[in-house]
Amino acid sequence: MGCIGFAHRGASADARENTLEAFALALRLGASGLESDVWRTADGVAVLDHDGRLPDGRAIRSAPRDELPAHIPSLAQLYTELGHGFELSLDVNDPEAAPEVIRVARRAGAEDRLWLCHYNWREIAPWRALSERVRLVDSTRLRHMRTPPAARAERMAALDIDALNLHWSDWSAPLARVFRTAGRKLLAWDTQDDASLAAMLALGLDGVFSDHVARMMSALAPPAG
Fold first, then answer.
1. Among 62, 68, 177, 179, which one is least packed by beta carbons within 10 Å?
2. Rg over CA atoms, the chain
3. Is residue 36 part of a domain?
4. 26 in any annotated domain
5. Range of 49's domain?
6. Alpha-helix residue ranges (DSSP H) falling in the chain
7. Is 225 within the bounds of a domain?
8. Measured distance between the N- and C-terminal CA atoms of the chain, rounded to whole angstroms
9. Mind listing the pLDDT tens digit for each residue in 38-88?
């Protein structure tokens, strides 16, 4: 597998973010992965939205599925409409959603292409007991890492946390080497322009996230000839 191009909230630079239309457009533009945030409704449905709030200010987790706006898709709808021929990265900001997310992905035949992210590694570590096949992602910033890189990489390996996701500007060749040596995957978010994309490709990262899908996929395309 080459570098995965994750469409951040779908093709969010060109369509309404986190809608089926944005996700479908991202795939048409060549994205090899999709990205969103996932929440659990009051009646237990996993849905895709950024901030987890309804227009009236209520939290999604406090409302049943049938009270959500029509543009907010469920995870099951995503798989029904678009299949599962793509990697899917989900920020699980509501940890209670994790079991349902895994159940839906498993039913869709997409469990092994699912990447579950959270900013607190203590939240994601227990999810390994729910699935041996999903990818678990420690998504943070370098300035928030209290443990030295080598020790953190060792801990990730021991807990079977697959990947580290950092802002692209946090990555460097020495840092990448530490986590690569420990067998971890390396991801970078907010790669919005040619310079940031080129820098991450030069480091050999496993995945990048961008709002600008066409630009991202052009950068990831192998050289002609």
1. 62
2. 17
3. yes
4. yes
5. 4-215
6. 20-28, 75-82, 98-107, 121-124, 149-159, 173-181, 194-202, 213-220
7. no
8. 20
9. 999 999 999 999 999 998 999 999 999 999 999 999 999 999 999 999 999
